[in-house]
Amino acid sequence: MDLYEHQGKELFRRHGIPVSEGRVATTPQEARSAADSIGDEVVVKAQVLTGGRGKAGGIRLADSPEEAREHAEAILGMDINGHVVRRLWIEQASDIGKEYYLSVTFDRGEKKPLFMLTTEGGVDIEEVAERNAEAIARLHVDPLVGFQPYQGRLLLFGAGIADPSEQKQIMAILEKLYEAFVAEDAMLCEINPLIVEPQGRIKALDSKFTVDDNALYRHHDIAEMRDLEAVPAEERAAREKGVTYVKLDGEVGILGNGAGLVMSTLDVIAQAGGRPANFCDLGGGGDAEGVVDALEVITADPQVRAILFNIFGGITRCDEVARGILAALGRLEIGVPIVVRLDGTNAEEGRQLLTEAAAGNLHVEETMLSAARRAVELAGGEA
Ligand code: GDP
Ligand code: MN
After folding, report:
1. How far is the CA of 16 from the centre of ligand 2 (A)?
2. 98-223 and 231-378: same fold?
3. Which chain residues have CB less than 5 Å from ligand 2, an ion?
4. Which of 182, 232, 321, 344 is 20 to 30 A distant from 219 in Cα terms?
5. 356 an active-site residue?
6. Atom 10 of ligand 1, residue of closest alpha carbon
7. Ligand 1, closest atom to CA 59?
8. How far is 115 from 178, CA to CA, in rounded Å?
């Protein structure tokens, strides 16, 4: 789960990393009163889950509350890399002496958190990595040992930070950032830029904070930060119903049981000349409740023109899934054709149940490939 800048900064603040005071605003009027209560020069910042806001004009300095209101009016509704701005962060403006870059992320290859620090901040780190890779100090932390002070010194010297006051402040920030990374089950904590003010004080001017979705059950405060409006309706419904759902951009909706089977179903749809619109993983379940939930989610996607059910019965019995499908069809009004392929435990009985029901838009196929071809054809593809 990606957090907005202001949410990441709130976590930074809780872990003792210096950030500026600020307020959230969703209207120009709120921006005005936020600036008024901060009572100083402010910066009006678009809150969108993408980078490069500065370049896109989504970050502007304001000298007065009235100017903050004007900037808010200009930034709200702006489209930044496909993200519409609905929320602003109004923050006390900082004077910038220098812009550094600091992050901790997961290096999956090494199976360890990786720190990166460079004095070339304020620009894309990828750009620095390409132009001047030596400028970036990199260091892995052994998760069992934890972050050690000598590693902080290695990073500081590696990045060429020689000023004793800067060293001391960044050392403290490194320790706190690692603490935050571990405590919040983060995948990424990035500060770009980490600024040095002209008087020498260091603080986080931006935040990119990503938390592991699988750990959200133990971070209710973070789970609640999710902006439901930024999520499409069917993804919201899937999350509420506890259905695994992924949106894609084709026309065949896919329902399977088990991640591996669902992945191969995507491939077979492609082989048949079609494109998946989305997929749902029923997991182990195939009861009516689960099928109704998944069908509701899948059909909420207006791009779906046919649905492919691909079920392999192991512990799940195909006759039960078939009853689930029939019960679901009894409860839901489904306007698109449904192709069902059942194999494995009690497949025969399952297929028979479906065939006997003889619902008009239900098609039963025996193999995965024939089912995929049928679904693609019914969706108007080129099989
Ligand atoms: P990003 O473009 O999405 O990464 O957004 P940032 O929060 O990193 O801001 C982009 C740039 O705007 C920074 O690198 C700064 O140069 C500038 N900026 C942001 N906040 C302030 C501020 O308080 N004062 C000044 N002078 N510039 C700022
Ligand atoms: Mn930034």
Report:
1. 20
2. no
3. 192, 206
4. 232
5. no
6. 54
7. 12
8. 9
* Cα 316 to averaged position of ligand 1 atoms, centre (Å): 54
Given the residues 67, 166, 190, 296, select the one marked as catalytic: 190
In order along its 383 residues, the chain shows pLDDT tens digits of 999 999 999 999 999 999 999 999 999 999 999 999 999 899 999 999 998 999 999 999 999 999 999 999 999 999 998 889 999 999 999 999 999 999 999 999 999 999 999 999 999 999 999 999 999 999 999 999 999 999 999 999 999 999 999 999 999 999 999 999 999 999 999 999 999 999 999 999 999 999 999 999 999 999 999 887 777 777 888 888 888 898 898 999 999 988 899 999 999 999 999 999 999 988 766 667 888 888 888 988 889 999 999 999 888 889 988 988 888 888 888 889 999 999 999 999 999 999 998 777 899 999 999 999 999 999 985 44
Considering the domain 98-223 in this protein, what is its CATH number?
3.30.470.20
For the chain, the domains span 21-92, 98-223, 231-378
Query: Which alpha helices (H) appear in the chain, and where do they start and end?
Result: 5-14, 28-38, 65-75, 125-131, 149-159, 164-183, 220-223, 233-241, 259-271, 288-299, 318-331, 347-357, 368-378
How far is Cα 17 from Cα 2, in angstroms, rounded to an integer? 19
Write down how long the chain is. Answer: 383
The protein residue whose alpha carbon is closest to atom 18 in ligand 1 is 59
Q: What SS3 state is found at 231?
A: coil
Query: Can you give the three-state secondary structure of 168-219, one letter per residue?
Result: HHHHHHHHHHHHHHHHCCEEEEEEEEEEECCCCCEEECCCEEEECHHHHHHC
Domain 21-92 indexed as CATH 3.30.1490.20? yes
Q: Which residues have CB under 6 Å of ligand 1? A: 43, 51-54, 59, 61, 93-94, 96, 99, 122, 192-193, 205-206
Instruction: Give the position, in ligand 1's atom list, of the atom nearest the Cα of 45.
Output: 7
101 is catalytic: yes
Distance 55 CA to ligand 1 centre (A): 10
Query: How far apart are the C-alpha atoms of 252 and 258, rounded to whole Å?
Result: 18
| Residue 22 Cα to ligand 1 middle (Å) | 14
Strand partners, 339: 308, 363
CA 8, 126, 121: angle at the middle one, nearest 5?
60
